[in-house]
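Appendix B, example 12.
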Amino acid sequence: MCKLPEEEKGKVTIRPFQTKVTTQTLSNFDPRNWLKNQQTPYIYLLAHAFDGVIWGKRGDGGWQLSCDLTKPASPNFTQDELLELRIFSPEAEIYVWREDQLFKSRTIKDGVTDSENRYEAYDEPQLLWGTKGQMRPGQNTFVRLEDGSQGLVHYVPLPTLGNFPKNNEPNTKRPVSLCIRHYVRQDSDTGLARVTMSRLFDLTFDLEEEANGSQA
């Protein structure tokens, strides 16, 4: 979890991880067919298309996507429109990105006992846009989050409105955060430690505590 205890606010806690990183080129990449084959341990999906954001969550019946429930609020989940996507959980992330006409992927898995790669890492919460929350009638998977005078909208996989006002009026806080893990390695030439890669690992909802992070 990236929710920081009171005594750790303003501090960076670095922990060791045994991590395996693999990359590959995806031939004949079809996002929906590819996603059907991605099961444990992945829970959430966040994809960026040319004209918006797509959220997803894996449940007992497979993956649910915001573009299938909230058209036209989310863009289509197709190869032509997709720029990049991430599926993630506390254990691992797969990051897929467009490179010219090809798609490539990078998988990061923590806690891999046979991995020779050892990193140090720290976690950071990044605030998501959303001061107003509204649950779609008849379903409890996605919450419509709205922010700003221009009405920036996205549909985030949350099971409840939490303490969002029921009349859809804005809060003074943005209570939803993405949890990001930054991996640190020491440069062999300079001896300086730097972040070499980052991944998503969780999605949290916290209205009661002052947020500690940057906006996404």
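Residues 2 and 47 are 21 Å apart (CA to CA). The longest strand covers residues 193-205.
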